[in-house]
Amino acid sequence: MLIGDLMTASGVSFGTSGARGLVTAMTDRVCYAYTQGFLKALLADGRLGAGAAVGLAADLRPSSPRILAACAEAVRAAGCQPCYYGTIPTPALANYGLQQVMATLMITGSHIPDDRNGIKFNLPSGEILKHDEALIRAQEVALPAARFDADGALQPAPVALPAPDPAAYRAYVERYLAFFRPDWLAGLRVGLYQHSSVASAALYEILVGLGAAVERLAPAKQFIPVDTEAIRSEDMTLARGWAATGRFDALVSTDGDGDRPLIGDEQGTWLRGDVVGILCARALGARVVVTPVSSNTAVEACGWFQQVVRTRIGSPYVIAGMQAASALGLAPIVGYEANGGFLTQTPIERDGRVLPALPTRDAVLVAVSLLGAARAAGRPLSVLGTELPARYTHSDRIRNFAAARSERLLATFSSGDDEDDRAALNQAFGASFGSVVSLDRTDGLRIGFASGEIVHLRPSGNAPELRIYTEAASSERARAMTTACLDQLAGWN
User: Fold this and answer.
1) Which of 32, 282, 450, 482 is the most buried if burial means most Cβ atoms within 10 Å?
2) How many CA atoms lie within 13 A of 473 on its CB side?
3) Which of 17, 63, 110, 315 is catalytic?
């Protein structure tokens, strides 16, 4: 069976961060086939040798153990050796894979609800990029009928995985303890919002190891889909309540798999991901910054960086942009996404210590860098970004907005004639936002208005959702713009 045909038949397809789909669609058979396709592509072009070790880890979703077992069985069937590293952050597995020059698979759905899950594939050299997805899609795999029952479950049940090897976790924690000074966070009081983040243990050990006083908060018994681009009202209420106690200088958390940071200031305000990306890039002395088109335009307006490169949304595009930026001969080169995930293309050097490059989304580096920068400046976290131009972003999504529905919406404003499209957009949005002056179709539809405000509409690459991003001169206006778009588009058909 061709992997491309399997995608169509199962509904489990590549999004911006690997294969994603409903748990009911991600049967053992589908996960086994995807893993076989990934390994077959690498074996065919020599990026993986026969009998090679393949690293595996998972997040804390209830469906992850079953999917993990199916993927491990597929690794064995391909003649390779599955190595299980436990429930650890996605960047921890990727970091260890890069160190060991080992392909890895992370079982995670990141921030999406737990009725969905996914598999993130990493090459021995890092994340798969879009051309790698095409290679996997083109693979033909054999699925022995006797191995699966009518529902796609493996028969007999997969061999149980051994106890997890702690090497990947330890390497990730030591990455930060070795780079930052032991007193980097000394004196800071940090609230660690645990929920169901697989990064909670690593974050606690790193923050304490760098001198912070850390209080663990709100561990969850069931999976909570924390999305750093569309923060839940419950999480806003929690943050304000914690801040009101006066016990914390900052709040720290991540999404489910630990690649996107969630950082709150002493007032209980969760900071926007594309703002913390700018601040982290500055704290690390970046000269080149690569970020998607949806990120805050303050990154150009601040004048802190020699080069800013814009890409489509998704870490594969940011990574490709960072790789291309290497030709500029400038370093350090970093990247970030509007969700706060931070990537490094080149090593970071400071005080004789070197932080190796990690070109995949990471949350810990952002948290540690920002808290340390605030401490070094002797300023509260809430004022760390006051030097940035007054540009504020907001985002949300309309759930259960099918991809085909999103395509029809965008097609309404994509006639091929910009004048006609601007006229249609003026009719649709003019009463709320004024006249349209620019269109950007790098990824979805980004609309610039004469006021300087921006509305960006984009179908999610991971779920049946329409993403809405707004930018304005105040946070209140950006939020109001998002609400207006949600109200106007929710019933669109």
Assistant:
1) 32
2) 5
3) 110
Cβ contact 30:152 at 8 Å: yes
**In terms of Cα–Cα distance, which of 411, 402, 398 is closest to 469?**
398
Instruction: Enter the tokens of residue 215.
Output: 């209080």
- Specify the pLDDT at position 491: 81
Whether residues 285 and 198 share a domain: the answer is yes
In this prediction, residue 145 carries a pLDDT of 87
Residue of 201, 250, 204 whose CA lies nearest to 88: 201
CA distance 311 to 255: 23
Show the domain range for 123.
3-160
Told to judge if 395 belongs to the known catalytic residues of this protein, a careful annotator would answer no
Whether residue 123 sits in one domain with residue 71: yes
Provide the domain count of the chain: 3
Same-domain pairing of 208 and 244: yes
Residues in Cβ contact with 315 at an 8 Å cutoff, skipping those fewer than 6 apart: 16, 17, 127, 337, 341, 343, 360, 361
| Section 302-323 average pLDDT | 95
CA distance 115 to 96: 29
- pLDDT-based confidence at residue 457 (cuts at 50, 70, 90): very high
> Tens of pLDDT along 124-141?
999 999 899 999 999 999
Q: Are residues 375 and 404 in the same domain?
A: no
Final residue before a domain boundary, out of 143, 160, 177:
160
Whole-angstrom distance, CA of residue 37 vs CA of residue 415: 38
CA 426 to each of CA 59, 260, 406, 451: distance values in angstroms, whole numbers, following the listed order: 44, 35, 19, 13
Of 383, 405, 421, which closes a domain? Answer: 383
CA distances from 333 to 180, 280, 304, 311, 363 (A): 19, 12, 13, 15, 17
Contact indicator for 198, 260 with CB cutoff of 8 Å: no
Instruction: Taking residues 433-439, report their average pLDDT.
Output: 95
Query: What CATH code is carried by the domain that includes residue 428?
Result: 3.30.310.50
